[in-house]
């Protein structure tokens, strides 16, 4: 089997889970760490696919908000990472790399394409925001979407976020929803002549039953397949 290289954006939050999940002891998969600190965006060209990871809230300036003092806002934002990963996303699109975006990455994709975010879910935090452990809830997919094709009609996922998509980019469609109506995933509205793209709000890399759960296992397999087919 041919080797592939996945670029994984470095995050301050449990980074080690992402390459471990993507590689899954497959010696034919290599990882390149794409880091805002190193500014090694030139290595995107050496990648065959891109994984945008979770982590700190994006700075509100990127979705045209001046409100920096919302509940659970970070004490210090990381605009350097925001700018770097926006560039990673744009470059990956230009190179037609398959893209898997998780949690913050899911939100970044929406913002990069002109959407915006709910800054804090308020009462919804009881369902979605991680405390000592990830929350758990059901998910339903939208018929005819890429995610429905990959993972099925419904399932159970983890949850660890206090922000979510508000206005969805005109270029995207929602592919799944939580029981309280939040967008849990997004993908291209018009997939013609566009690279493979799947953005999810949950954390497939650390779902407890990730070896069998189709909202982790099948997503990983579909992403790897897309990367291999692109090569």
Describe this structure in words.
By secondary structure, the chain is α/β, with parallel strands linked by helices. It has one domain (4-230): Rossmann fold (3-Layer(aba) Sandwich), CATH 3.40.50.880. Helices cover 24% and strands 23% of the residues. It is built from 6 helices and 11 strands. It has helices at 17-23, 79-94, 104-112, 125-128, 146-151, 217-230; strands at 4-9, 29-34, 49-52, 99-102, 117-118, 135-141, 154-159, 164-165, 172-177, 183-188, 197-200. The strands form 2 sheets. Strands 2-1-3-4-11-10-9-6-7 form a 9-stranded mixed beta sheet, with helices on both faces. β10 and β11 form a beta hairpin. The protein is globular and about 50 Å long. The termini are close together. The mean pLDDT is 97.
Condensed summary:
The protein is of the alpha/beta class and 231 residues long. The protein has helices at residues 17-23, 79-94, 104-112, 125-128, 146-151, 217-230; strands at 4-9, 29-34, 49-52, 99-102, 117-118, 135-141, 154-159, 164-165, 172-177, 183-188, 197-200.
What are its keywords?
231 residues, alpha/beta, Rossmann fold, 23% strand, globular
